[in-house]
Design brief:
Structural class: alpha/beta
Shape: elongated
Strand content: 25-35%
Strand order of the largest sheet: 1-2-3
Low-confidence stretches: none
Order of helices and strands: EEEHEEEEHEE
Number of strands: 9
Distance between the termini: 45 Å
Length: 162
């Protein structure tokens, strides 16, 4: 079943220190991001861009979106393949390069999921499920830079010898 899905949020800038954007250093980059029925997310620019390092920044959120989308797609792929995942943790990272003209772009994101499956006999299918998850991930399919995965899969228990 195909469908179109719409998403909406409200982003509100809270950085007017009394003179608005009268100068580059005269305002904060504090933002609140709200989606109806969800906790408010406190955001800012990344620290090198005069942001608050204690708040989420757009670069963090992009990597988080890619990581979570892969995770959720992977769990679905594993169910379809008969693989029982008992643990999953990703240590994702990304590289963004400034272009010298005030802009920039991500050049890649690397997902490093550490997966534990119920039995050793599931490891090969669990490894293969990462490719399926990558093809299914809406977010990875929406970006114009490579999203790689360097996964490790282990078993919670070894197979009994015959």
């Amino acid at each position: 079943m195909l469908g179109e899905h719409q998403y909406a949020l409200t982003a509100t800038w809270h950085g007017n220190r009394g003179t608005g954007t009268s100068g580059y250093r005269d305002y904060s980059r504090d933002v609140s991001i709200e989606v109806e029925g969800k906790p408010t997310l406190l955001a800012s620019a990344d620290k090198p861009f005069r942001g608050d390092p204690e708040r989420w920044n757009p670069e963090d959120m992009l990597i988080a979106s890619l990581s979570e989308c892969h995770l959720l797609s992977y769990l679905h792929a594993c169910v379809s393949a008969g693989v029982v995942v008992v643990s999953y943790q990703d240590r994702a990272s990304g590289v963004m390069r400034e272009d010298g003209r005030g802009g920039g772009a991500f050049t890649e994101v690397v997902l490093r999921p550490e997966v534990v499956v119920a039995e050793a006999s599931m490891i090969a299918a669990a490894q293969s499920a990462h490719d399926d998850a990558h093809r299914m991930c809406f977010i990875a399919n929406s970006v114009n830079f490579p999203v790689r995965h360097e996964a490790s899969v282990s078993a919670a228990r070894a197979e009994e010898p015959a």
